[in-house]
Amino acid sequence: MLKRIWAIIQKEFIQIVRDRVTLAIVCTMPLLQLILFAYAIHMNVMHVRLVVADQSLDEASRSYINAMVNSGYFDIVGYVSGQNDVVRALDEGTALAGIIIPPNFQAHTLTKDAQVMFLVDGSDPFSTQSAYNAATLISQAYATQLVFNAINTSGSPATVESLSGLNVVLRVLYNPGLKDLWFIVPGMIAMLLQTQTIALTAAAVVRERETGTIEQILVSPIRPVELMIGKMAPNLLIAMFNMATILVAGTIGFGVPFRGNLLVFFFLSLIYVFSGLGLGLLISTISQNQRQTQQLMMMFSFVGMIIGGFIFPRYSMPVVIQWISNIFPLTYFIPISRGIYSKGISIVYLWDNILPLIVYDIVILLFASRLFRQRLD
Question: How far apart are CA 341 and CA 361, in angstroms?
Answer without folding.
Answer: 23
